[in-house]
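ERR on first pass: missing label on line 2. Operator R.T. fixed the label and resubmitted. Corrected input:
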Amino acid sequence: MTHAAIRTENLGRTYRRGRAKSSKARVASPGDMIALQDVNLEVRPGELFGLLGPNGAGKTTLIKILTTLLAPSTGNAWVNGLDVVTETRALRPQINMVSGGESCGYGVLTVSENLWLFTQIYGMTDKLSRERIDRMLTMVGLAEKANTKVSHLSTGQRQKMNFCRGFLTDPLVLFLDEPTLGLDVNAARVIRTFVREWLAEQPDRTLLLTTHYMMEADELCDRVAIIDGGKVLACDTPSALKRRVQRYPMYEITLTNPQGKRSNFDPSMGIHQATWTATATEEILQVALEDASLIGYVVQQLLGDGARILNLSKIEPTLENVFVELVGHGITEKGNA
Amino acid sequence: MVHPVALFLRTVRARAYPRVIGMRRYPSWIVQEAVLPLLSISAFAFVYRAMEAPEQYIGFVILGGAMTAFWLNVLWSIGAQLYWERDTGNLEMYIMAPTSMMAVLAGMAVGGMVLTLVRASVILLSGWLLFHISFAPSSWWWLSGVFIVTLLALYGLGMMFASLFLIGGRATWHMVNLLQEPVYLLSGMNFPIRILPAIVSTFAAIIPLSLGMDAMRQLIFVDIEGLLPVRVEAAILFILSIVFIALAQRCLIYLERRAREDGRLTVRWQ
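pass 2 clean. output:
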């Protein structure tokens, strides 16, 4: 029987105030922080699954539970069919995790020595670890820094080194917690490209990625779960999620009209929404149509009213739109993290 | 699937590596670690010489200085190590890995021992050159055996401290400081422990450093009377090393359970 790469069942985690209380205590006290609540997820083998949410949404807590670092307060979780609480010994060789912005390693050691050290705690042979280290450093463009002490690296270079660390042990399930946090555009692109290639190499590899970069989730993930306040609000493919917020095809038309006239559209024709905005030199019309073929009618109407069309484009919804629709605010808006 | 013994040994070697390589890359450590302690040892040696105390007393001080290096290493490097590992972000990587935390601690201990062995050797050598103290052990085998079980017991204690210090959180610094000075007295760093009141010297016997130094002094300075016969002290040290290592393992299991339940223990900036 094929099991899910990751499965959670009513998973919850409450951080208790004070030191003596067990996280298993059922009754929440004032000041306790509920980080996760009734999370039910299933990630298929070979999938690149994204967890999308603002800071404090519960993404890292979920990852820590799945990587055996944290015990759930309620519910259960399995990775590769192994219980994350009771089967840690069998599970740990199969997983790895990289957190963006982490600073692990020893400043006295070089990049390749640090990476070698972390392969040894997974029992890799020296030969295999050297081969993989060389390959990984080349892939992320850090080969020339292999013999540089970690204390002499820039933040971005150090982050790339930690990124390599996660892949070296060839885990079946890899957890990437905000892997491109703080990286420059080029470095982030290198990371994203590598992630795709790594998954494509072997079909049984699974990757769970947390991010609050919408574009990253949209570009990389097969499916995305949107999480906020410790709850999963939606889980689907990025395109299916986007369809949720855009029931009708939408178009944006940039135009000028020397006669200063704004066209009126008959709702009975299937024009569900027509919104005008004006700039200093031109006007922008956004229309939501019952069917994409109605754009012809809209264009004819505009031309008939004397407008000169400068640009016409279809509006594709983004995951940001989905997030705002579900959560009620943008992912980076302050006060909602 | 890698064999557990191979995994353990690889981890020990890997975790010892930063310590050992650090010695080579930053040789200035020798000034702080070996030359500076020699100054306080010299002070005691000159006092004993001025008082026309037996030459063995100066030998006591030099041996005490060398062995105390191990105690400081156990406290500051091994005991506080998990605390440092947490603050550098390494601890979660170790916990999440398939290796055992005992292997990680053993690696730290081995690295620490190598470093401190060099430091202790420098102190002994300098003492011998400066004060012309002759070391003539009655049995090299017994001396080596006592030295090894002393280190095992000491580093077992340090491995136990590592978990306790981490659980202690910010109080770690105070705990380390609290343990440092009294042990100088109770271990008889600069004098024979036998001159302490019986109740104090009995209590001191649970500190591996005290028993180890007393046994080694008896073996090196033949006509010295110790707290207990060497064989008894060696046996106690052997038992202590087993007890401390077993307790260290229990503490690690407790620590990991606490960390997973608490959710904060292994995270930076606590």
